[in-house]
Write a structure and sequence with these properties.
single chain, alpha/beta, D-Maltodextrin-Binding Protein, domain 2, 2 domains, five-stranded mixed β-sheet, 9 helices, 22% strand, metal-binding, Molybdate ABC transporter substrate-binding protein, ModA
Length: 255
């Protein structure tokens, strides 16, 4: 009888010890497991992976899950109902599309980027820039709908150069992959992608590349079920620590 009474008295206490507060943390101090989904342009892979790790350390119980694709693909997926809490694109054009479709809230520019050429190590095809050295060579670029492809189109137009690529990819990391594997003689990517490839490629600067600058905006999605946490991630990206990670990857500050 005494044992039964003790059990009855302990039961409510056990229930109280595991009760959750409004923030999702339990009374014992453990955090409620939460997944934050971030849709980000493929060129942000290296820097956002690091920012995500830093964010998780500062937010126990939170897992940041990334989906890296071409910006236009991410906006299409979001418009079709794919769940995401944050959207970061490699241009304002695709973010404006998301804004007009009421897919995101307030946008904030957090970085800028420019284009460069990359070749396999040692530049075996002797590429010198967006010039005659590309004639007859296997050049790979991004498709026009992709931010890096749109930038490539604008830049080649400003420079009066006609490009004849052997393929147009749906994301900049695919261009990198084809050059790194030796499948292409040259590829046009962001300078951050050239930096991320390291010794796997040789970088060839494009004269007057600064005539076309890509602006990177970020926003919390309207469909986010963790809007407050998503806004904290945005703040992490724009913070001094987040900006250092981006700068180390080769990005320039927001204009």
């Amino acid at each position: 009888m005494a044992a039964l009474l003790a059990t009855a008295l302990l039961s409510p206490l056990a229930a109280c010890s595991s009760s959750q507060d409004s923030s999702g943390a339990t009374a014992s101090g453990s955090a409620k497991p939460t997944t934050l989904t971030v849709f980000a342009a493929a060129s942000l892979t290296k820097s956002f992976d690091q920012i995500g790790k830093d964010f998780q350390k500062a937010h126990p119980g939170v897992t940041v899950r990334f989906s890296y694709e071409g910006s236009q693909t991410l906006v299409e997926q979001l418009s079709e109902g794919a769940p995401a809490d944050v959207l970061a694109t490699a241009d304002t054009k695709n973010m404006n599309t998301a804004t007009k479709a009421s897919l995101v809230g307030t946008t904030t520019e957090f970085a800028t980027n420019t284009l460069t050429l990359i070749t396999p190590p040692g530049n075996p095809a002797s590429i010198t820039g967006l010039d005659a050295s590309l004639n007859g060579k296997k050049l790979v670029i991004c498709a026009p709908a992709v931010p890096c492809g749109n930038a490539t189109k604008q830049l080649s137009g400003k420079l009066g150069v006609t490009l004849k690529p052997v393929s147009e990819e749906q994301k900049v990391t695919d261009v990198r992959g084809k050059v790194e594997s030796g499948e292409a003689d040259a590829g046009i990517v962001y300078r951050t992608d050239a930096a991320a490839s390291g010794k796997k490629v040789t970088t060839v600067a494009i004269k007057d590349a600064g005539q076309v600058i890509n602006h990177y905006p970020i926003a919390v999605t309207k469909s986010s079920t963790n809007a407050a946490l998503a806004q904290q991630f945005v703040s992490q990206v724009t913070s001094e620590a987040g900006q250092k990670v981006l700068a180390d990857a080769g990005f320039s500050p927001a204009s």
